[in-house]
Amino acid sequence: MVLVQSLTLSASSKAVHAGYLLKLGEGALAAYKRRYFVLQDNTLFYFADEKTARSNGQANGFIPMGATSTTVKKTEKQAFGFELAAAQLGKRNFQLAAEDESSLLKWLQVIKLINVRRVKTIITSVVEELERRGYAGVEGIFRISGGKDTINALKKDYDLGWCCPSLPLRSLFRCILYSTTDWWWRWWWAVSTGNYPQLSDISDIHALTGVLKLAIRELPEPLLTHSLYSSFVKLRTCYLCLWVCASRPICSDV
Predict the structure, then answer these.
(1) Is the dihedral of CA 169, 175, 178, 181 positive or negative?
(2) Beta bridge pairs of residue 64
(3) How many helices (H) and strands (E) in the chain?
(4) Residue 172 gets which letter from DSSP?
């Protein structure tokens, strides 16, 4: 994973999406201002304008995308508004607004895709660790619950690792300013690993499967998807010998 050391875009990474959004500032007299947003390295940067972003200028700020969620909040003044929740990562929730319906849908789709990729990363790394350990003889590997504290700590580590491109230098300033244990820990983690949690250090194998199940529950849409649910239910009426052939086209659409 690339560690971003400044508020400038990385020349070696491709932007996932970019465009103008309205962003609500802080304070009692806050107003919406037009900013140019660029999603890169799992971090959403915002600039004063597109020219500044393209000329490798300094961004006004950033939003880490680890475990973020979106909620559409349309009002009379902002017909295409939405909230980006990032408080669990040490940032406030952001009130944003697109300029039209198509732009709003595109941003929601891209952010949803980022969240799906995050879950895919968790699932892949956990499964690889389970295979490395050899889990065939473990009783109730997906049935028995792991330690709640360990699962929550793993989830937090994944979320910090997912957004660690924006952590090292910027959170160091927060550590100096606020002197909080949590921010010191975040900065140490990003600098010392620059990656996801070391699963080999977790002795509770049920905690590993627990964080995997938690990641699946947090998917924006169920694994079998709402649109294909009725098709999967109809498979129950198929004969066993025809089930594989009948399920193949449905599974390919997932």
Answers:
(1) positive
(2) 43
(3) 8, 7
(4) H
* 54: Cα separation from own chain's centroid: 25
Structure-block tokens of residue 148: 């709640």
Beta pairing partners, 113? none
From CA 37, how far away is CA 5, in angstroms rounded?
A: 18
Tens digit of each residue's pLDDT (9 = 90 or more) over 181-221 = 444 444 444 444 445 678 888 889 999 999 999 888 877 77
Rounded Cα distance between 217 and 202, Å, is: 22
Best CA proximity match to 67, nearest among 248, 188, 220: 220
Model confidence, pTM: 0.67
Domains and CATH numbers, the chain: 17-109 (2.30.29.30), 116-217 (no CATH)
Average predicted confidence (pLDDT) for the chain:
78
Q: Token pair of 84, please?
A: 């980006």
Which phi and psi angles does 94 have, rounded to 5°? Answer: -105, 130
- CA angle centred on 26, ends 52 and 77, rounded to 5°: 85
What's the token pair of residue 233? 């239910």
